[in-house]
Each structure stands twice: as C-alpha cells, then as structure tokens.
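Entry for the shared binder. Reason: the reviewer on the internal report wants the predicted structure included alongside the sequence.
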Amino acid sequence: MTETTDLRELNERIAEKSRFLDLVNKEMEKVIIGQNTMVDRLLIALLSDGHILLEGVPGLAKTLAVKSLAACIRADFSRIQFTPDLLPADVLGTVIYNQKSESFSTKKGPIFANFVLADEINRAPAKVQAALLEAMQERQVTLGDTTYKLPAPFLVLATMNPIEQEGTYPLPEAQVDRFMLKVVLDYPSPEEEQKIIRLNMAKNFPVINPVLTPQDILEARTVVKDVYMDEKIEKYIVDIIFATRIPEDYKLSKFKGLLSFGASPRGGISLAMAAKAHAFINRRGYVVPEDVRAVCADVLRHRIGLTYEAEAENITTSDVIRDILNHVEVP
C-alpha cells in the first residue's frame, strides 16, 4: 500500500470522526460570541488529552465556555473557586471515620469530573495547587490507602486574573509547565459586545444540547494521534524548542542573556500534539508548518522565562516567540 493510499484512508477516517466538531461549534455559538480562539483551543486541549490555562479579565465567558463544552459532551462538570483558605481535601476529597459502623468511608471531591474549572487558581496556596497539578499529571487521586482513577476524558481548565496580584500565590514554572496551553483572552469587538448584550437581554437564554458522548472524544483522540507528521515537521518543532534555549544558534543573539530558561521537552511534545489536533480540526490527515505556527504562542508563552533585563527592556514572551518563528527555517 502506498503512502498516498494511507493518507487518503486517514483523511476519510478524519472526515468521519471529526463530524462532531461542526455540531459542537454550532452549539457553542449559541452562547459564546466572538471568542473563537478560546473555543478552538479548548477543543485542541480536549483532543490532545491536555489541560488549559486561561488568562483574562473577569467577564470574558471563561466559565461559560467550559460549562457549555461539558454540556455538549454529556460530561460531568465541576467548578472549584480557589481561595486562600482552600485545603487539598476540598479539591481531592477525604476519608471520613464513621463512629456508628466503626469504618472509614471515602468522600470524593469535585476533582472527580470530566471537566474541572479551577477558577482563579493563583488564589489558593501552594499545597492546593500541588494537589490539583498532581491529579492532572497522574490522572489519579490517592485518598487514604486507595488510589482512584479519574474519569476519562479529564480536562482541567484553570483561570487567572492578570489584574489583581494582591493575595495571590503565583504558580511555579514547573507547575505551569503541566498546562498544555496558556491562552490570553482579550475584550470582544464593539459588534460582538452588542450581540452579547442582546443575547443576555433576551427572554430565554439559549440551552446547549448534548451532541456527543465522552466515548466519541476518546475515539477521536486515537485518530488525532494517527495524524501524519513528517520528519521535517518534527525537526521544525525541535528547532523552535531549541531556539528558546540557545537563541544565538538561530541568529537570535539579541536574546542572549534575556532568557532565563527555555521550553522543556514537555513543551516539544505539547507543540507536536497541539499541531496534530489543529490539523484534525481543519479536517487534514497530515501536519503542515502552519499548524505548528498557529498553536506555537499558546504552547510556549508560559514555558519561556525572561530575565530582569528583558522585563526592563519591555520584551515579552510573545515578542520572543514571534522572532523565533521569523528566524527558524520553515520546511
């Protein structure tokens, strides 16, 4: 069998398995206006078995988006409001002793859901953040002597408010790295804002209908992994990752001494998986450089560390990523 035949078969499989995307987008458009990138990235994280960190001012439909996506998929949804007095047991659950029966019983926490919204994750202390991030990485929770598997699919959507920094506990770099994507949200356009006001003033707020099951998502994930990635695209991803670590090797000497650390190997894996999911969403059985470029900023913006000198010169991670994409040779 030739490579062309294989690719044709793969495209047919993708066409069949990606039909639900149109249905999901149609349902999401009922309640989410304008935030197309956020919805797109939510689907990429879902199809890649990754987690997503959303940064944006309050009121940009972050909570509504993840609730609506959960409703589309007939999946369990839970929301945890992170506060300074939150305890790990409030997230994971705990083991309770029953005096009557003289036995221990397990009370599972809100983490046991398909979609978990960690609202304002940086408001809770490090111990709670660590408990959540361990569950994200291992896909399991240990309560007492028993380890419980988390349901599949399992997606954590964490939000951060960039305005208020008082009384917050910034996420350490090693923990932020667990998030596949970090999406920065902006305000809607005037036209979109007008539609949002009109939608919320209507007598009845639209209802999201379930259009697929968690099993459909798990099946789609296997197809996403089968999306063809050429060796040249793999090399392109490796070059982008290494440009964040050794910029001078890629004619980016101006960043020498301005980057405190670059993307980890997990960043490379996330970039490859997100590019495959992007190709799947665009109904393609193979990855092109444009897929990598489209998701690059969201995959890498939280994985590049800037020195004080860079901050003094008003250089942002977005500037670094843009220059890397302009300098690294495209296959």
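Summary line for the report: Residues 94 and 206 are 37 Å apart (CA to CA).
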